Model the fold of this input.
Amino acid sequence: RCGMQLREGLQAQAIQFGLGNDFKQSGPAQMPYFHFESEKHFARAQFGDRKKIITFCDVCAQHGVLFHPFHTMFLCGAHQPDDIRKTLEVTAVAFAAVADLIQHAR
Done:
């Protein structure tokens, strides 16, 4: 249930910030992996070219939410709906930072 709450919340935020076609999620809800489709052709070693996912994960980490930019993650019974709600507050800030990054790149 929490995995789906996270997945649906992330997708809604991606759409809200104009990233709905670029932000992709895969894997089972309890083991999410996400990335920006426009960056998937860059090798993992090309960190500098994966600016969107690095920015997203960096902003999340600065606000206490740890996501890995290149690997699946996991949710477990310790994660509660309130944890997901707080996480989504942080991811909204991260999506805004990615949208700002794109805007300034133009």
